[in-house]
Amino acid sequence: MLTGIIQLDDAYLDGEQHGGKRGRGSANIPFVAAVSTNEQGHPIAMNFNVVKGFRLNEISRWAKLHITPHQTVPLFLMDSPVFLRLKTLAVTI
User: Fold this and answer.
1) pLDDT interval class at 87 (50, 70, 90)
2) Helix H or strand E encompassing 7
3) Which of 29, 68, 79, 89 has its CA 20 to 30 A from that of 19?
């Protein structure tokens, strides 16, 4: 499980399909990228997991499996609105 200061990002595997839709709603594979760092900003661990999508229930499930409770996830390090809603979970951010 990830500990320390955790940086999160949502992304899609397979990139842009020529002539296809990009980003959310595309046929690409959604995944969460996470890096935990120490107080000095040095990486401790990385985690890349395929998820079913970026809805709150799926990200909540992911967080409970991969983030140790009561860790720090700075708001300015998250670019997805669903990560900001993780405050409602047992995972403290």
Assistant:
1) low
2) strand 5-13
3) 79
Give the tens place of pLDDT for each residue, 8-60: 888 888 755 556 665 555 568 889 999 999 889 899 999 999 999 888 888 88
Tokens of 43: 């990486």
CA–CA separation, 36 and 31 (whole Å): 17
C-beta neighbour count of 50 within 10 angstroms: 10
State the pLDDT confidence band at 90, using cuts at 50, 70 and 90.
very low
Query: What's the CA dihedral at 81, 53, 33, 84 to 10 degrees?
Result: 20
